[in-house]
User: Fold this.
Amino acid sequence: MLSRIASALVPVLGRLSVSCEVAGPVAPGSIVAANHSSLADPGVVLAALRRLGTEPVVMATAGLWRVPVLGGVLRAGGHIPVHRGTDRAAAALDSAAKALAAGRVVLIYGEGGLPKRRDSRDAEPGAFRTGVARLAAASGAPVVPLGQCGARRLSSGGTVKQLAGFATAPLRRPALYVHLGAPLHLVDDITEATATAQRAVTAAWRTAEQRRCQGERRE
Assistant:
């Protein structure tokens, strides 16, 4: 349901372009590791993946489950709440590993949070936490790096600016780009695997950003 909502809403808000290094849907039992830059980018990523024939389970901050309507949608879709900074945080990785074993695709944000910047520009992904590496080590699943840019033009800054961004987006229709890199298998060393995952997502983000710049020059 969440992917269907995103797929219907995102084209109204902006112009979505999707590219990938491996054609077709993401293979079942894969981890999609994405960069996180805006409150809007989960919708952009879900719409892009659905266009490719993939509807993932999302790992997201547990606070979203308390949001009216959205919480019900998340529960109904079997998405995975992450209770950051608590003893329950590790349980999210266990749930994700079970979803992978059942053949689901799991979407995880390597940075584990949003950047502190308030402007609308895109920038390289920040430092990764160890979640991607730990999940890959526990499950043996391949990691598909995903880079997205443009979502900050839908939503960034303080509350008033974010609301204004969403309200005016159907008129502005900013360009949104998503690029999926080739799947990779991470090594068992968590430090090295975390660095490898960050480099791969950064490379995918650079491809998306280059395509955005090329599109702006054509316009």
Remarks:
- Helices lie at 2-13, 41-51, 70-76, 89-101, 131-139, 159-172, 190-218.
- The chain has a mean pLDDT of 90.
- The beta strands are 15-20, 31-34, 57-61, 80-82, 106-109, 143-149, 175-180.
